[in-house]
Amino acid sequence: MIIRNKKILYSKGIAYYPELEALRLKSELASGWQIEKLNCLGFYIFKKVLPQEQEFVIDFYSGAKKEASEYEELYAICGWQPVITYRHRYYIFSAPAGTSPVYTDEDTFTTRLSAENNWLLKNYTIYGLLSLLLTVLIQLSPVKSMLMTLPWFYYILSTVLMVGVLFPIIGMSLIAYYRVIYPNRKSSYCHPDRFAKRQRFIRDMLLTALIGGVIGGLAGFISSWFNLI
After folding, report:
1. What domain of life (predicted)?
2. Contact 74, 100 (CB under 8 A)
3. Between the N and C ends of the chain, which has fewer C-beta atoms within 10 Å?
């Protein structure tokens, strides 16, 4: 979608498809659209520029915010320049074609993947605990009576919170899925473009939707069993 010289595209997920998304950004720039922002809803915002040939890399940063400048400097030494950041964790860099990747050994790249997975699980768990707390809260008689004045709102909120309670399980399931489907990702540190071409986004969405359906069924069973909805 193009609005006032801005192109808007939905991200396929920089946490699970950084290599594939990097190729996508490269293709967009070659067509004259440069990434300008990734908003909180997962939409890329592109601005119109002259077509260019650049390589892109999407990396996860696990350090402290105050040390981010050193992290960017490491990339700069290797010829990569920062383009945008997302939540101070995901960094998108660009460089001329042929620039060597920053990761030069499998162990370092494996450490990066582990740090990202731990960060994702931490966030899933926090969201799950908050959802559990709110689920218990809305079951208290005074709160439930007040919410039931708008039954549709109560049922929607209860369903959303129940899914939220299962977020840690959903997160672990997704991480496990991508480890099984793409076991060679650790060894792709020096050829991310080759790895990206082996990724199958539509297939993955169908299979993860199936996993989500199973988890959703579990959520429905739990909510019925404990009379949460």
Report:
1. Bacteria
2. no
3. N
Mean pLDDT in residue range 22-51? 95
Are 25 and 66 in contact by the 8 Å Cβ rule? The answer is no
Beta strand pairing call for 33-38 and 2-3: unpaired
Residue corresponding to tokens 């950041």: 85
Taking the C-alpha atoms of residue 217 and residue 62, their distance in angstroms, rounded to an integer, is 34
Single-letter amino acid code for the residue at 61 = Y
**Gap between the Cα atoms of 134 and 143, Å rounded:** 11
pLDDT band at 226 (very low <50, low <70, confident <90, very high): low
CA-to-CA distance for 28 and 46, rounded, in angstroms?
Answer: 9
CA–CA dist 183, 177 (Å, integer): 10
Global pTM value:
0.85
